[in-house]
User: Which sequence fits this backbone?
């Protein structure tokens, strides 16, 4: 396994506390010679390359890139764009949900994963000269940094992400109403959350941000435990936000749980489709580069 892959693997990421180092290593390793545009201010579109599709002219294939990646990519013309990149992170208590590896290794939860993911995207944006802003949201605190470009701004974002703690619930939009106006201006908004909410607060935020000048990408985080319900015997579950507890037989509730979870995901997908919001569902127990690749594919569909 290469040094880059070691940083991408969740088990190793859980042990590394230097967020800027991880962001830089993952970003540069993943993007090296692949999608990174030489143009400044492209809003993390990486429009210089896209995956080859049947019917593309063979003359447009980048053969040097094929030699490095063993995949066919087509060079596309760069396009002008003057947009801001906004990173929105759900910092409510439910984001403390841990991954499978945390049972045997260092602590790793959704908030950690969201921090590393957004830090990596922030690094990519900073390298392109994009203006990047940050909004971390919970009823315990609202973390806000206006969208600016440059190295100092990048350092501010890294520091804010590193310090961010989860707690409380996702706040109502009235709590940060003054900030929404800035985020809604021409830009790209990435919302990282598990989309657990009490009264549709997160979905209200999504619908309030989406407009003709703003692209919104919803990145839904889940763990393998949530997706597959591997529990056995009698299990005590606790709602991280309400602290309500239930002691149940895993066997007796598993089928109904999986049905309800599927319904939850389907309803989210329907909402995002209705509002023309790109939706990525990502497992925090999978390598971070898979989420990055899915994100870049979603962006490429807009070009």
Assistant:
């Amino acid at each position: 396994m290469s040094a880059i892959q070691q940083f991408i693997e969740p088990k190793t990421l859980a042990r590394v506390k230097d967020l800027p180092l991880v962001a830089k290593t993952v970003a540069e390793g993943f993007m090296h010679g692949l999608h990174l545009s030489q143009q400044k201010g492209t809003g993390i579109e990486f429009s210089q390359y896209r995956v080859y599709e049947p019917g593309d002219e063979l003359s447009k294939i980048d053969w040097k890139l094929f030699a490095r990646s063993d995949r066919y990519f087509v060079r596309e013309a760069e396009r002008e764009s003057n947009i801001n990149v906004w990173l929105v992170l759900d910092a409510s208590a439910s984001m403390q949900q841990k991954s499978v590896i945390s049972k045997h290794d260092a602590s790793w939860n959704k908030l950690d994963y969201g921090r590393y993911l957004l830090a990596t995207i922030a690094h990519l944006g900073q390298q392109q000269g994009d203006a990047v802003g940050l909004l971390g949201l919970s009823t315990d605190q609202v973390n806000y940094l206006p969208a600016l470009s440059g190295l100092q701004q990048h350092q501010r974002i890294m520091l804010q992400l590193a310090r961010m703690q989860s707690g409380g619930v996702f706040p109502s939009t009235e709590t940060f109403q003054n900030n929404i106006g800035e985020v809604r201006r021409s830009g790209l908004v990435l919302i990282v959350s598990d989309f657990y909410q009490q009264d549709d607060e997160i979905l209200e935020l999504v619908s309030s941000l989406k407009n003709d000048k703003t692209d919104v990408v919803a990145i839904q985080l889940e763990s393998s435990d949530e997706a597959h319900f591997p529990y056995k015997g009698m299990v005590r579950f606790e709602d991280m936000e309400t602290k309500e507890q239930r002691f149940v037989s895993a066997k007796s509730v598993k089928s109904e749980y999986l049905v309800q979870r599927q319904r939850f995901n389907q309803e989210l997908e329907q909402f995002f489709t209705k509002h023309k919001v790109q939706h990525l569902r990502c497992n925090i127990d999978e390598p971070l580069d898979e989420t990055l690749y899915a994100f870049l594919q979603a962006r490429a569909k807009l070009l």
Remarks:
- The longest helix spans residues 250-274.
- Confidence is low (pLDDT under 50) at residues 1-7, 33-42, 77-81.
